[in-house]
Amino acid sequence: MKKIFLYGDDLFLLARWIKLINNRTNLIENKSELICVKNSILVINISICKNISDEFIVDFVNNKNQILVLDNLPNFYNAKKYLSLGIKGYGNTLMTSSYLNSAIEALNNGFIWLLPDITTQLVNNIVDLDKQDDKNKDELLFRHLTVKEKQVAILLKKGYTNSKISIELKISINTVKTHIKHIYEKLSVTDRVAFASLFTK
Known about the structure:
201 residues; alpha/beta; Arc Repressor Mutant, subunit A; 2 domains; six-stranded parallel beta sheet; 9 helices; 53% helix; 13% strand; elongated
């Protein structure tokens, strides 16, 4: 187990963490002591982060250290901010002993640890970004198509058959075929396989 250091501006929290953490801990009295810490785990409360620059956090992490930031009111915004600086853990200052020790164990093993709610929000955010990214790619790819051709192209992408497209858009099969012919010409593809491959790049 890596050495565990605690640094904070709230004596109650520091005492609580010492009591709850299963491994031996070392207290950091002031910021200058942090410079000597290497290949260790640092548990800090978020309010102390105001006294530490983002650059310092990045340098600290580059010394093979893992940081667990604990927040009185954990939120997605702060989690994203500190993850982007290289911290590996983000939780609640008053979380249970099992969560606290689980977070320290995860960091010790080189993993990231987040509160379950924050993890869920992060995953949902990634999924939403992927959906938005797909939508942006489609808009760019379909920019030269007419409104009706775009509607047909979106259904083609979803795997609709000509007859399903006809029913969905309330147009004849022949009109669907004409739109598909124009879509293929504008996108420089010859068939559905080539069309589908445009979305796997």
